[in-house]
Automatic annotation (TrEMBL):
Gene3D superfamilies assigned: NAD(P)-binding Rossmann-like Domain (3.40.50.720)
Pfam families: CoA_binding_3, Polysacc_synt_2
InterPro entries in the record: NAD(P)-bd_dom_sf (IPR036291), Polysac_CapD-like (IPR003869), Polysaccharide_Synthase-Rel (IPR051203), SAM-dependent_MTases_sf (IPR029063)
Keyword field: Membrane, Transmembrane, Transmembrane helix
Name of protein: NDP-sugar epimerase, includes UDP-GlcNAc-inverting 4,6-dehydratase FlaA1 and capsular polysaccharide biosynthesis protein EpsC
Domain called Polysaccharide biosynthesis protein CapD-like: residue spans: 281-563
SUPFAM superfamilies reported for this sequence: NAD(P)-binding Rossmann-fold domains, S-adenosyl-L-methionine-dependent methyltransferases
Oxidoreductase found in the keyword field: no
Family: Belongs to the polysaccharide synthase family.
TM spans (from-to): 7-29, 41-62, 74-94, 100-118
Amino acid sequence: MTYRTRLTLLVLLDSLIVSTAIFIAAWVVYPYTEVLSLDAITISAIALLIFHHIFAAVYKLYNKVWAYASVGELLAIVQAVTLSIIAAAIVQYLTNDFSVYSRALLVTWLLHIILIGGSRFAWRIYRDRYIANSDKKKRTLIVGAGAAGAMIARQLKNEQDQAELNPVAFVDDDFSKQKMQIYNIPVLGMVKRIPEIVEQEAIDHIVIAIPSMANGELTKIVDYCNQTDARVQMIPKIEDLMTGKVSVNSLKNVEVEDLLGREPVELDIDSISEYVTGNTVMVTGAGGSIGSELCRQLMKFAPSRILLVGHGEFSIYNIDMELKEQYGDSTIEIVPVIGDVQDRERMFEIVETNKPAIIYHAAAHKHVPLMEYNPHEAVKNNVIGTKNVAEAADTFGAQKFVLVSSDKAVRPTNVMGATKRIAEMVVQDLAKRSTTKFVAVRFGNVLGSRGSVIPLFKKQIAKGGPITVTDPEMTRYFMTIPEASRLVIQAGTLAKGGEIFVLDMGEPVKIVDLARNLIKLSGYSEDEIGIEFSGKRPGEKMYEELLGEDEVLPGEVYEKIYVGRTVEVDAGLIKRLIEDLPETDTEQLKDNVMAVVYAERTLLTAEGS
């Protein structure tokens, strides 16, 4: 129906209702009396008709989509009708010897609201009852009968023409909501009854509508959902909804990252702003997973200039374009810089030219098995690269240097972990004699990073499986990239020089459990995809540590941030390792790297005793 046709029909319908309602009201109120003046009633009807159309235009009654009518539309009808009756009463008063048929006008007011409102809401009722319950819609269970759940239910009801979901029930652990109804949708029970309710109500789809949950609560809900064959989606987390409201379009699949995510840390905004805002900040490895997220987080604190330093041309191009698109209107100068941390002259040139106040060193080789086969590259990138950037920071007076380290640096059994520990030793040694505050921040695996296990598992699932897991008992610590990056920035504010900060990674997770969750969340069963155990790869540990028992200092220095003990570093061992690098074969280099680390651990153990 065109707008013109629709407008014509509504005007004619309202004209019929308004023109006849006052006569019906007059007959109802004064059925057997002669007090009525037919002329006064006729004049009042004409006035009422004119004023109704005026106020209907003012309150846009002819522009509303009545299929989605609700309380707001009803209020507009009441306001338009009320003002029309008042205006008609004034006309009646002036044309009927200063008298008003008040009871007749009151009944007219009621008839107008009933008939005009009823005509508008009739389509909504028909649509909700017959169209909304089409067999083509997926019967949907909403977990959470709070504000977000109610909003999702309402929007699904209102968007039945486009939405594929038909909400038929809620579940909620709130006792006060049991057996209640929201938008005519019943609350059928608590979360633990999800499997039973899905079977009883033939549920095809589950929407988790609880944007703020305590740690572990989502995992419990998903466990119940996974006992069914229904597809599971959820609304975004609170931190993702800050710039908009919950909507049907914002529903997303439940990801493993959601299950392993934790309560967000409240950052000390003032202290971060104090040392970032208005300063030049440099990030090495800016095109990588952690480096690029560091850049995104730092931009929120308005540095005067941010240097995106990296060896990969395409990755630096990507983060440069992303930041310029998002912050193009700001005064922050975004400078993409192509440079290899192994190139000492280039690093010195970059630091000397731009004089960064803060340097975040995220550039590193991180893949454990690859570095077992390529130990020379691990030393060149992780040790020599760190040494180049750190000494440039010292030479040209940077205020702070933050090394992004790894939990694999604790009692390392592989070249990658050992070179990261030696990188920590490099900055610890410099911290003793430099005005620059050098610190390292150590954490475990980050979800979704390049080379992490989850993207690999997703590719294997997409190919039909099987998922390969090294060992059924292997565990790892996990945190999200944004959380890791925020805590790295926060740790930088705490730097006094020489510390190794350790991020609280929560509880370790079995890799096989991660695989099973990912299979189920992808809509498959373990029988369909399968899991195969391939055995440990070169250099891998069964479990990771964030601090050795002899390195732990008690108490947090900030929420989820700890600091480890430090010992005297033998810089001579590191120097000899680097000098001998060109002539050292692969196996000997592995021994030399481990010798440097475990000579330091001998000192640490002796000091602890």
